[in-house]
Design brief:
There is one protein chain. With 431 residues, this protein is α/β, with parallel strands linked by helices. It folds into 2 domains: 285 residues, Mur-like, catalytic domain (UDP-N-acetylmuramoyl-L-alanine:D-glutamate ligase), CATH 3.40.1190; 134 residues, Alpha-Beta Complex (Protein-Tyrosine Phosphatase, Chain A). α4 crosses α9.
Length: 431
Amino acid sequence: MNIADALAYLDAHAGYDKTGRIEHPSLDRISRLVEAMGDPQDAAPVIHVTGTNGKGSTAQIITQLLVAHGLTVGTFTSPHLERVNERICRDNEPISDEDLADQVGAVVDLALVTGVEPSYFDIVTACAFRWFADVAVDVVVLEVGLLGRWDATNVADARVAVVTNVGMDHLEFAGPTLAHVAAEKAGIIKPDSTLVLGETDAALAAIFRAAGAAHVVEREIDFECIENQLALGGRKLDIRTPKATYTDLFLPLHGRHQGDNAACALAAVEEFFDARLDREVVEEGFAAVRWPGRFEVLGHQPLVIVDGAHNPAGADACAQVMDDDFDPAGKRIVVVGFLQGRDPGQMLSALRVDEADLIVCCTPPSGRGLPASDVAAAARDMGCENVLVVPSVDKACDAALAQAGADDAVLVTGSLYVVGAARAHLIKALP
């Protein structure tokens, strides 16, 4: 199988229109696949990360801290921005096209042998586990794709389970309350796990504590970010953990919330080693963190930022970071698009687009993309007067840049499908 064949196979399993909607989540398909592979998910210890927001950043920080410590690290994240290869990395380097094609080919063969009809996420997850075993990584960092209990990554047993926070998301499989969502996320906690708990709501924290971890460390009790200041290009942090206090750390990510993610990550790596970390390791790991498409600055004069704020909590954080970390002197121009299933009014309100000078609405390049005209109608219902409908992401970005002066700011946000397409275009278009 070559990479074109592999991508075609993945595409044939992407979307409910091709595979059917999942009515009853189950680990049966992925369990049968990895069993046929010889259970590669057990080949290396696992740090497993879930949460409504912040799990991607936390997983990246954990990865960099482990790499700085000298380990070979396999990292599985989702979704990707531009290429599916980004989901499966060794020491931050995405899997090659050749290796990805080989792994997909192996899954195809095993699916036929076992009679499994895997989903897209089953396939990519199985590929990740098999490749990590093939290249003999020392540790695997897994980001949950959906909730936790029935997520395909949950065939692995975590040495350290990390919960960043709990919000109202993926309510098609959990809910209607935060307690229901928390119970599903708690499914990644195994009897031998150490739980690093970032959620501070007392009622929700009790759900996670009751999940049966061998050991629990909690934000605001055992660890926390005790100082969090704006710095050029990121944040300056002081972090207290159960084993040490680390002061004056620089993290090159934007947003006050990244201090909380960094505290979770640092606590998780300490618990993995059951030891404090050398300050030089922490400094090196933090300095190396990159998280493309998440409040990423692509240009100046005008300021151009892309941020995948794909749910209301993420949208609210995006708006807050824009105010706190940048506060542009000139006009604010927002390019935005969402997937179906999101309430565009709720998302636009969280993004505070009524404070923007221009909103350019586009359609994500996905079969589940919400039409740009629907987003525009929601913006006008909020009282926004200067609203453009430009369905193509590339042309929407061009329209925004055409209206932007040197002191202005262009924010491209919403679905990661929008951000991924915009990022690829803007990197070429900007000087």
